[in-house]
UniProtKB/TrEMBL annotation:
Coiled coil: 15-105
Assigned keywords, A-Z: Cell projection, Cilium, Coiled coil, Flagellum
UniProt organism field: Rhizobium lemnae
Protein origin, superkingdom: Bacteria
Entry annotated with the keyword Coiled coil: yes
Protein name per its UniProtKB record: Flagellar export protein FliJ
Length: 116
């Protein structure tokens, strides 16, 4: 049946799209983690250079404050992306189940056509 074949292709497309979205989220998380580590390294260097590691100290380096805020923002973004990743993984599992069901129906229909 053409409609079943179309359904299988649609479900396969949806599975591939969900995989792509999941990979994109994972790449963004990895990039944010890399950026946060680089900022932490820069903060550490700035604190060593100034000799002040207490962010509440009046002479704490402005660059270190800004970099610390940026690193904190990145950590918040990573946590939000993790939530999105969990949802995307669930959506991918559902799409894979729907694809498997559509494929099974297509195979069943093909077997029925061959016997008839």
């Amino acid at each position: 049946m053409k409609t079943r074949d179309s359904l299988v292709r649609l479900k396969e497309f949806q599975v591939n799209e969900k995989r792509r979205q999941l990979q994109q989220l994972q790449m963004m998380m990895a990039e944010f983690e890399r950026m946060a580590k680089e900022l932490e390294h820069q903060i550490s260097l700035e604190e060593k250079k100034s000799g002040i590691s207490d962010p509440n100290h009046f002479a704490y380096p402005t660059f270190a404050k800004a970099a610390r805020q940026r690193a904190d923002n990145l950590q918040v973004s990573i946590k939000e992306l993790k939530v999105q990743q969990d949802a995307a993984e669930l959506a991918l599992e559902e799409a894979q189940a729907e694809h498997a069901k559509a494929t099974a129906l297509e195979e069943r229909d093909a077997t029925v056509r061959v016997r008839a």
